[in-house]
Amino acid sequence: MEILRKSMFRTECDECQKPFPVNSGGVCERCRRILCNEHLHGSFSRRIAIALGAPYVCVSCRAGRTPEGQ
Ligand SMILES: [Zn+2]
Ligand SMILES: [Zn+2]
């Protein structure tokens, strides 16, 4: 029964390598990295912007630092 208590829906952030629940982060539309809440959105106000229809673009891409040469 212990298996059922564990969340199976976890993945690792490509930026900080920390595991996080998939429903708290997402994939950046621009660099296609899987990122935790902190590295995808960065701030609470950005989460609101996303909820209002802003694109899923991570903190690094919004800052003009696109990783992996794109
Ligand atoms: Zn992260
Ligand atoms: Zn990005």
Describe the secondary structure blueprint for this structure.
Blueprint: H1 2-5, E1 10-12, E2 19-21, E3 26-27, E4 34-35, H2 37-40, H3 44-51, H4 59-62
Antiparallel strand pairs: 1-2, 3-4
Bound molecules: zinc ion (2 copies).
One zinc ion binds at residues 13, 15-16, 18, 35-36, 38-39.
Relevant terms:
single chain; 70 residues; alpha+beta; two-stranded antiparallel ribbon; two-stranded antiparallel sheet; globular; binds zinc ion
Q: List low-pLDDT spans.
A: none
Q: What series of H and E elements makes up the topology? A: HEEEEHHH
Bound molecules: zinc ion
Number of strands: 4
- Helix content bin: 25-40%
Strand content: 5-15%
**Terminal-residue CA separation:** 45 Å
Write up this protein.
- By secondary structure, the protein is an alpha+beta fold.
- The protein is built from four helices and four strands.
- It has a two-stranded antiparallel ribbon. The chain has a two-stranded antiparallel ribbon with strand order 3-4.
- It is globular and about 25 Å long.
- It starts with a helix and ends in an 8-residue tail after the last helix.
- The mean pLDDT is 84.
- Residues 13, 15-16, 18, 35-36, 38-39 line the site of one zinc ion (ZN).
